Amino acid sequence: MRGRISRFFHFDEAGTNLKTEAIAGVTTFMTMAYIIFVNPAILSVPPPAGSGMDFESVLAATCIASAFTTLLMAFIANYPIALAPGMGMNALFSFNICGAMGVPWDIALGIVFLSGVFFVILTAWGIRERIFVAIPDAIKYGTATGIGLFIAFIGLKDAGIVASHPETFVTLGNLSSPPTLLAITGFVITASLMAMRVRGAILIGIVITGLLGIPSGIVKFSGEIIKIPSITPTFGKLKILEALRPAYLAPIFTFLFFAMFDAIGTLVGVGEKAGFIKEREFPRLNRALFTDALGSIIGALCGTSTVTAYIESASGVAQGGRTGFANIVTSILFLLALFFSPIAIMFGGGYQIPGTQTRLYPITAPALIIVGSLMMESITKIDWKDLTEAIPAFLTIIIMPLTFSISNGLALGFIAYPVMKLMAGKWREVHWLVYLLALIFISRYIFL
Q1: What contacts 229, CB < 8 A, 6 or more positions away?
Q2: What sign for the dihedral angle of Cα 207, 212, 218, 223?
Q3: Three-state SS for 184?
Q4: 3 state SS for 377-403
Q5: What confidence tens digit (pLDDT) does each residue in 361-376 have?
Q6: φ, ψ for residue 245 (rounded to 5)?
Q7: How far apart are CA 189 and CA 370, in angstroms?
Q8: Given CA atoms 270, 276, 278, 281 in this order, what sign does their dihedral have?
Q9: H or E element: which one contains 152?
């Protein structure tokens, strides 16, 4: 049996073995398992702020979609790169598409499905790589940074550290409030674990914070530990035909754009760390891209936002993972996590402040702030000395959190970039596709 596994996944060629791959798979799961708590927490935020999806169903969809797509990566591409609902794209789904735009979550799932279909087509035709090359670095890095700020802002809001104000829009929240104090404690614990390079720091931080919340009543133990949640409320509930309206072209493109460059960036980053890329050649890249493209379709069918490759897979690679067998281990752990859904619901369900309509999420909020801070690294790659690069990047970054909209930041960045280049006489530096995208975004604001 062990010999068959070794031959199937080409252990000898990759210079690895069964034990190393198993350890790598466990490590990857530990570093990305926080998504089991965080994704349902984001998608279950009630209207008008969020999508209002069923927490338990999204949790089940998260585990099943992650396990299935991670298995596909193992068998199609034979890479130790796990997949799960993407941070940033789940925020776009819940807070922007469903919250700000008022799109029902079942139609929003249809939007994700359609973006996935276009994604598969572009990948099959080899257009995906060309589009990625055409997108300016200022927009790529600005988008990653802007999403980081946006996610961190949501985390600060969910923790109660930042609150709304009628005159100044935002202000400092009540830091003496028990749930806010718990969130701050959780942030300090998680950040400390990250600084000490503890594997699975975010997941461990969530668990410790949740346990600390039990004595105060912020986290309430239901009496259950093992229970399989029902996926029925969201599984297959997507509305594809309703998502074909012209008004939804912008969100379809936005999901497509995010998934496209996020996946390529993740695959290249993990590939470089693992030594897969040699002489600028990335073996089986198209297979990996195709698997990632299927993630949007699979996620929408299961009842969650876009599923994509996770940069946390680099932790498993650092432990020696070099083949798809590591993904099999990660997939099994995602499925086993389904049995412990009461713990996820207990930690991620949020806390209603008595006598108010305010619901805080002190257990998962620290994870959002941490993930947001990690995404800020991209800001160092922007050429701030060139204003034709810096200004579009800045607009992309700042508009996202200030308008509570990822798509608005993208749109203004794409509009500003060719305008700045034209005014500076550098119009030849801009790919024709960027001009086309700018016109599309301008038309969106004029006509939609």
Answers
A1: 56, 57, 59, 60, 338, 341, 345
A2: positive
A3: helix
A4: HHHHHCCCCCHHHHHHHHHHHHHHHHC
A5: 898 888 888 888 887 8
A6: -70, 145
A7: 11
A8: negative
A9: helix 137-159
Residues 6 or more apart whose Cβ sits within 8 Å of residue 196: none
Residues in the chain: 448
| Portion of the chain with pLDDT greater than 90, in percent | 43
Structure tokens at 300: 């929408």
Burial 400-428 (b: 16+ CB within 10 A, else e): bbbebbbbbbbbbbbbbbbbbbeeeeeee
Q: How far is CA 241 from CA 120, 256, 340, in A?
A: 19, 18, 36
Q: How far apart are the C-alpha atoms of 315 and 321, rounded to whole Å?
A: 9
Residues 6+ apart with CB under 8 A from 80: 21, 24, 25, 28, 274, 313, 316, 317, 321, 322, 323, 324, 325, 326, 327
Closest to 288 (Cα-Cα) out of 97, 442, 22, 80? 80
Between strands 162-165 and 351-352, the pairing is: unpaired
The answer to whether residues 370 and 190 touch, using CB atoms and an 8 Å cutoff, is: yes
Q: How far is it, in rounded angstroms, from Cα 280 to Cα 270? A: 14
Give Cβ neighbours of residue 288 (< 8 Å, ≥ 6 apart).
73, 76, 77, 79, 81, 267, 309
Residue that the structure tokens 């720091």 belong to: 201
Say if residues 40 and 282 touch (Cβ distance below 8 Å): no
Q: Alpha-carbon dihedral of residues 150, 155, 158, 163, nearest 10 degrees? A: -60
Residue 341 pLDDT level (bands cut at 50, 70, 90): confident
DSSP 104-127: -HHHHHHHHHHHHHHHHHHHHTTH
Q: State pLDDT tens for residues 63-83.
A: 999 999 999 999 999 999 999
